Amino acid sequence: MKHLLLLCCAVLFPLAQLHAQMDEPAPTVFIYVNDQPYPMKSVTSQIESKKGWDIQGINVGSKTIRYFSGKHAKLITDDKPSFAIYPNKQRLNDYVLIRLKEKRGYRRMPAAEFTECDYIRIELGQFDIQNLPEMGYKVTPTKPLFPGEYILVDITQKRVNQHGDFKAYDFTVEDNL
Using an 8 Å Cβ cutoff, are 37 and 31 in contact? Predict the structure, then answer.
């Protein structure tokens, strides 16, 4: 048994190190700062289910909240940010902007699912879209965004776990007053 354990450790330990050294996937979403694109880091949503009350076998007041940790996004921009998006399998109009509600220590989505949220789809009329080399697009909102917290998200992406959490790119639109 001891030899079997040592053998397993001898095989699995190098594999774990090899996995840790694997290249990360190339970024697909960038934000322009001084006309230069910089890669955005994705953040993962979290979910909280509030039970509500059980009144004679009927559940009342239960709700699900989807949120992002942190009071503010680390990335701060003006009211007309420009993004470079290089879609892989998805289309450009699969990306949407969702404004988050600011809370004490986190930012929450208006509803737990995309379909229940008001969002701005990246499409002509809503965004100025320019072609970039290597099948990319530079997108800029046609109307200024209100100050606050936002996420840019691909609504067709595969969820990261059984709770339906997803990856998004968060940013803060600064108040210019």
Answer: yes
